[in-house]
């Protein structure tokens, strides 16, 4: 069931029907500066966003100091032997919480991690060690969403649809599957849309289908990838912009 904790509920309900902007930069991004993530978050707040999604303890701390919005924190850690990179261990979970994020996002797929565990098993441990946190389950399909909810996730979203071996070739959101998640899980958890949303119209479709809120990143805060989508189309898809979006840093 959805949380009855008054503090958690107030944060989650404040996001209803709104836009959460993913404000992330990596040092090899062409737009990178030491303060770019702060400017992104300030721009999102100015526009009326209801929350920020941010990567790494340092960037989370910076954003919390400058923007008064709930933060969904994660920490991306890449390894060559796995596709699990979003908050893969308790080290990252604890660091995100200590950095000030109210909400902790972690990989809740059934993929195997660098440490040899199944990614979705981390949720139980994280909830036990940090019960005060709100947990955001990044999944790739309905089965993983169901598993995450059964193990106490407060939020589920198909963030990793397109990032697992089974879905790697997919570029568009699966609206029918997302609608099924909203229909079946709306009383058990907050279902949010994240991934492959590039226009306000698509975001509004998700709200219409039942999304509690919508997370958008690349289409807003990564202009180099927006430009590359145009270039790839104009060049007859000789290069795939998605390879750049999925690149390990």
Description:
- This protein is of the alpha/beta class and 249 residues long.
- The chain has one domain (6-222): Alpha-Beta Barrel (TIM Barrel), CATH 3.20.20.70.
- The chain contains eleven helices and nine strands.
- Strands 7-6-5-4-3-2-1-9-8 form a nine-stranded parallel sheet.
- Helix 6 runs parallel beside helix 7.
- The longest helix has 12 residues, at 36-47.
- The mean pLDDT is 95.
Task: List key phrases describing it.
single chain; 249 residues; alpha/beta; TIM Barrel; 9-stranded parallel sheet; 9 strands
Sheet/helix structural class:
alpha/beta
CATH class: Alpha Beta
Low-confidence stretches: none
Fraction of helical residues: 25-40%
The side-by-side strand order for the widest beta sheet comes to 7-6-5-4-3-2-1-9-8
Determine the CATH superfamily.
Aldolase class I
- Overall number of domains: 1
Radius of gyration: 17 Å
Query: Beta-strand level of the residues, as a percent range?
Result: 5-15%
- Name given to the CATH architecture: Alpha-Beta Barrel
- Secondary structure: number of strands: 9
SS element count, helices? 11
Largest sheet: 9 strands, parallel
Any idea of the CATH topology?
TIM Barrel
What best-fitting shape do the alpha-carbon axes yield?
A: globular
């Amino acid at each position: 069931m959805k949380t009855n904790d008054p503090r958690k509920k107030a944060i989650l309900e404040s996001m209803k029907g709104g836009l959460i902007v993913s404000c992330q930069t990596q040092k090899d991004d062409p737009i990178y500066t030491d303060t770019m993530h702060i400017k992104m978050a300030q721009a999102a707040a100015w526009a009326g966003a209801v929350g920020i999604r941010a990567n790494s303890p340092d960037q989370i701390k910076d954003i919390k100091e400058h923007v008064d919005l709930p933060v969904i924190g994660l920490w991306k850690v890449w390894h060559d032997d796995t596709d699990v990179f979003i908050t893969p261990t308790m080290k990252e979970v604890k660091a995100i919480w200590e950095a000030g994020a109210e909400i902790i996002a972690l990989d809740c797929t059934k993929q195997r991690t660098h440490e040899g565990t199944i990614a979705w098993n981390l949720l139980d441990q994280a909830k036990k060690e940090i019960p005060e946190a709100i947990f955001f389950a990044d999944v790739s399909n309905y089965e993983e969403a169901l598993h995450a909810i059964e193990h106490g996730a407060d939020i589920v979203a198909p963030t990793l649809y397109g990032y697992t071996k089974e879905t790697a070739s997919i570029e568009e959101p699966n609206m029918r599957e997302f609608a099924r998640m909203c229909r079946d899980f709306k009383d058990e958890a907050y279902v949010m849309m994240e991934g492959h949303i590039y226009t306000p119209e698509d975001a509004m479709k998700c709200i219409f289908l039942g999304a509690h809120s919508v997370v958008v990143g690349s289409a807003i805060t990564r202009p180099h990838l927006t430009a590359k989508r145009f270039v790839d189309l104009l060049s007859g898809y000789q290069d795939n912009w998605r390879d750049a979006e999925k690149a390990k840093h």
